Amino acid sequence: MNILERYHAMEYGPAPEARNEADAWLASRDFAKALFIDGAWKAAANGKTFDTSEPSSGKLLAKISDAGAADIDAAVTAAAKALPKWSATSGYQRAKVLYAIGRAMQRHQRLFAVLESIDNGKPIRESRDIDVPLAIRHFIHHAGWAQTLEKDFPDHKPVGVVGQVIPWNFPLLMLAWKIAPALAAGCTVVLKPAEFTPLTAILFAEICERAGVPKGVVNIVQGGPEAGAAIVNHPGVQKIAFTGSSEVGKIIRKATAGSGKKLSLELGGKSAFVVFEDADLDSAVEGLVDGIWFNQGQVCCAGSRLLVQEGIAEAFIAKVKVRMSRLRVGSPLDKNTDIGPLVDRTQLDRVRGLIAEGAKQGAVCWQPDAALPTTGYYHLPTLATSVAPANILAQEEVFGPVLATMSFRNTEEAIELANNTRYGLAASVWSENINLALHVAPQLKAGVVWVNGTNMFDAACGFGGYRESGFGREGGREGMFEYLAAKLPVGPAIKPTAASSAQPVEQADGASIDRTAKLFIGGKQVRPDGNYSLAVATAKGKLAGEAGLGNRKDIRDAVSAARACKAWPDATTFNRSQVLYYFAENLSGRADEFAARLVELTGVTAKAAREEVDLSIERLFLYAGLTDKFEGRVHQPPARVVTLALHEPVGVVGIVAPDNQPLLGFVSLVAPALAMGNTVVAVPSERYPLLATDLYQVIEYSDIPAGAINIVTGRSAELAGVLAKHDDVDGLWVFADAETCAKAEADSIGNLKRVWTGNGRSLDWTSSEAAGEALLRRAIEVKNVWVPYGD
Ligand code: NAD
User: Fold this and answer.
1) Contact 76, 161 (CB under 8 A)
2) Is the pLDDT of residue 117 over 80?
3) Where do the coiled-coil regions begin and end (predicted)?
C-alpha cells in the first residue's frame, strides 16, 4: 500500500462527546414538576406526564409533566400579572436581563448542546457550533432592541401576553427566536416546546431563575397538541407566535380568526436549491450537504428540491453521490457524525412512507451503501432522481434526509420550477455570475434567498416565509414588529351590512341625469356579470344612481386582471411615484365635483367634504413621495456576507373599504398598496360606492396601467368572502363589520394569505397616524437575500 492508498483507506476513530454532566443534570431533576409557572416549578394539575426518549436508542429519558387547561390558565394568569410591571420596566433594565440570560447560557453552552443532541438526535457538531451559539446571539442581540425600543419603534406598544408554540427540530434555537424579541418588546410569555424535545427549555427556565427574570415574565409549559391548543385559544393571550407544520398553522389561523390576536406563523417549506452551469460545483455540493442533510433534513428551510441545469446535471449528480457515500451516519454524540437519528419512530415511518410513495410515482431513489446503527431511528441519506414536478417528493415536505432532483434548461425554467410549490420559505442560488444570481433572487417566491450558500441565519436578519410557509418575520428589526402593536387611531364600529343597506330609496327628483356606474376591471368599465345593480341613496334617501352588483365571477375576473398586470409591480419606484402624483393632480382638478358628491351622498357639510377631498389628495401625494423612500435595508451579520432585506410587494391585494369617510378611507387603503407595487382588487364602501366609481374616471387618465387597480362594487360581506377564499389573492385588508372580518380571517387558510382587518372597527382616516409606514409595512414582504463576499 503506498501513502496515497493508505491515506484513502484511513478511517475516523470514534470521538464521543462526554455526557456525564448531562446525565447528572437529568438525574438531579424532578421532571414530574417540569412546568415553570410564575417563577415556580409545578406538576400538572391533573398529575399527568408524558415520556421523552432518546432517538439514538429509543430509551426513556424522563417522564415530563403534561400541562392541561388548568395549567395553561395558571401560566397565562401569571404572565398577565407580570405584564404591567415588565412592560413599564426601563429598556436598560430589560436589556440587562436579556444580556444576563445570554451570558448565563454561554456559561452552560456545552450542557445545552449535549442535552439537545441527546433529546433531539442532532449531531453534537451542529448543536455545539450552530444551535446553541445562535440562540445565545439572539438574546444578546435583542438586549440592544430592548434598550432602544422607544426611539426605534415610536407609536408602538408591547402587544401584551404572548403564547408561543414551537417544534422539535431546533428546540433551543426556536425558543430563543421566540422569547428574546418578546422580552425585548416588553411582552410576557407562555411558551410550549414540542413534546419530543422538552429538555433544553427546562434548562433554559433554570437559567431565567438565575438571570433575574422577574416571576411570571417567562412561563414554560410542557405538553402536546392539546396544551398548544389551550394556549392558542386562551382569551388572556394577545398574540400567538407559532412555528411548526403548515397543517397546524392553518388550524391556528382558523382558531384565532376574529379574536383580535396578533399572529405570526413560521411553517413548512420545500425550498429550491438551484445550481446553474457556471456554479462552482464542488462548493455547491458542499452547500447541498448543508442544505438537505443538516439536522437529518428536519429543517423547515431544507434545500429539498435540487434544480440543476441540464448541461451539468449528470456530472453534478455523480459528485453528489460520491459525497453522500462519505457522510457518516451514527451517534449524535460522536463529533465525526454528519447524520444522526430522526427524532422519533413516527417521523422515521413518515419518511419511509413518503419515499415509497415517491418511488411508486416514478422516482428512482438511491442511497449510499452504508450500515446503520442497530438501535435508534436512523435513516440513510437518500437521493431521488427522475422526479416529475408533480411527484409527492417534489411537492410534499418530507422533513427527512431526502433530496428530490430535477433539471432545467434555462433561467426562466429554473425560476418557474423553483416557484412551483405552495410553500415559499427559502431558496439557494448557485452561480459564479453574481449578476445572474441577483437577477434570479427577486423572482423567487421565498422569504430568504441564499446566494452561493445555504442555511445562513443571524439574529439581525429577518427569517420567514411567503405563501403557505406562513407570515411574519423572526429576527432583527423586522422581527421586533411581531411583538409590538402599532397605535392606530380607532374609528367607528362598523355595523353589519344588512343594517346599513336597508335604506329606503325614493325615486330621484329628476334634477340630475340617471347614471348606472359599471365595475372597473383590467382598465375597462365593464357590466357586472349578473347584470344586477345596487340602488345608491343620497343622504336624503333619494336615488343618487345605481352601482353594479358585483359577484364571485366579477371578483375572479378582477383578480385575473390584477395578476396579469406586470407593468405596475415591474415599474421603477420613480415611475410609480410619478403616476401617483399625477393621480393626485387629476383628483385635485376635480375636487369641487368630488366634494359636492360627498355632500350629496353622506350629508356632511360642504366644508367637511372639501376637507375630505383635500386630505385624499394629500394622502396620494404622501404615498407618491414614499414610493421610493420606504426601502429595504442592508444587514451586516457577523460573517463575510451582506444580507439585503428587500421590500417586495405582497402581490395581488384585496381591499374592502369602509363607509366612514368613504373617499378618504378608500384612498388611504388603496394608495399605500399601490405605492409598494401591489395590484389591487378594491371593494369600495357598500353604501357610497359612487365615490369610487367616480374615481375610476380619474384613474383612467392618470397613466395607471390596466389591471393595477380594479374596482368591484357590491355587497361588502359577500365580496370579502370571495376574496378571502380566492387562492390567487396574496393579501386582504378588510374594514367591515366584526363578523365579516372574522370570516375573512378564517376563510383565508387556503393559501394563508396575509389578512389585515379592523376587527369590526374602522380607522379615523383623518388622523396622520392612519397613514405612512404603519400601512406601508402591510403592503410589503421582506425578502432577505444573503450574498457572501471574498475569495
Ligand atoms: P407540528 O405542527 O406538528 O407541531 C409544532 C408544535 O405545535 C408542537 O409544539 C405541537 O405540540 C404543537 N401543536 C400541534 N398541534 C397543535 C394544535 N392543534 N394547536 C396548537 N399547537 C399544536 O410540527 P412539528 O412536527 O413539531 O415540526 C415540524 C414542522 O415545523 C415542519 O413542518 C417544519 O417545516 C416546521 N418548522 C418551521 C420553521 C420556520 O421557521 N418556518 C422552523 C422549524 C420548523
Assistant:
1) yes
2) yes
3) none
How much is the CA Rg of the chain, to the nearest whole Å?
A: 28
**Is the CB of residue 341 less than 8 Å from the CB of residue 332?**
yes
- For residue 239, give the H/E element and its range: strand 239-243
* Nearest-atom index, ligand 1, CA of 165: 9
Residue type at 387 in one-letter notation: V
Residues ≥6 apart with Cβ < 8 Å to 668: 616, 619, 763, 765, 770, 771, 775
Output the nine-digit C-alpha cell for 19: 455526557
Write the residue with the smallest CA distance to atom 31 of ligand 1: 245
**Residue 414 C-alpha from the chain's centroid:** 24
Ligand 1 center from residue 214 Cα (angstroms): 28
Return d(Cα 103, Cα 385) in angstroms, integer: 47
* Residues pairing with 286 in the sheet: none
The 218-220 sheet, strands edge to edge: 40-42, 35-37, 218-220, 188-192, 161-165, 239-243, 262-266, 470-471
Nearest CA to ligand 1 atom 22: 225
CB 452 within 8 A of CB 429: yes
For residue 664, give the 3-state DSSP assignment. Answer: helix
Q: For residue 65, how far is its CA from the centre of ligand 1 (angstroms)?
A: 20
CA 697 to chain centroid, in Å, comes to 37
Three cell numbers, residue 435: 449578476
For range 365-392, the mean pLDDT: 96
What atom in ligand 1 is closest to the CA of residue 465?
41
Prediction pTM value: 0.96
Residue 76 cell numbers, joined: 397565562
Q: Of the candidates 138, 137, 37, which has an alpha carbon nearest to the alpha carbon of residue 80?
A: 37
**Does residue 731 sit in helix, strand or coil?**
strand
Q: Under 8 Å CB-to-CB from 318, ≥6 apart: which residues? A: none
Q: How far is the CA of 469 from the centre of ligand 1 (A)?
A: 12
* Residue 506, pLDDT score: 63
Looking up cell 439572539 gives 138
Distance between CA atoms of residues 684 and 65, nearest Å? 53
Task: Give the pocket of ligand 1 (CB within 6 Å).
Answer: 165-170, 192, 194-195, 224-225, 228-229, 232, 243-245, 248, 251-252, 266-269, 300, 397, 399, 425, 465, 469-470
Q: With 50 as the cut, is the pLDDT of residue 502 above it?
A: no
Q: How many CA atoms lie within 13 A of 567 on its CB side?
A: 12
Going by C-alpha positions, the residue among 380, 696, 676, 295 that lies closest to residue 525 is 696
What number is the average pLDDT over the span 323-350? 97
User: Nearest to residue 432, comparing CAs of 696, 74, 787, 104?
Assistant: 787
Determine contact, residues 170/126, Cβ cutoff 8 Å. no
Residues annotated as part of the active site: 266
- Given the DSSP bridges, would you call strands 490-493 and 761-763 parallel, antiparallel or unpaired? antiparallel
Contact 712, 519 (CB under 8 A): yes
Cα 304 to Cα 426: distance, rounded to the nearest angstrom: 10
d(CA 510, CA 783): 56
Q: What is the crossing angle of helices 199-210 and 109-120, to 10°?
A: 160
Q: Which residues contact 192 (CB under 8 A, 6 or more apart)?
A: 67, 163, 164, 165, 166, 220, 221, 222, 223, 227, 228, 231
Average pLDDT of every residue of the chain: 96
Spell out a b/e string for 302-329, using b for 16 or more CB atoms within 10 Å of the CB, else e: bbbbbbbbeebbeebbebbeebbeebeb
Residue 517 near residue 546 (C-beta atoms within 8 A): yes
| pLDDT tens-digit series, residues 395-410 | 999 999 999 999 999 9
Phi first, then psi, for residue 492 (nearest 5°) are -70, 155
CA distance 405 to 312: 13
Ligand 1 centre to CA of 229 (Å) is: 12
C-alpha grid cell for residue 384?
431521488
What tens digit of pLDDT does each residue of 267-302 get? 999 999 999 999 999 999 999 999 999 999 999 999
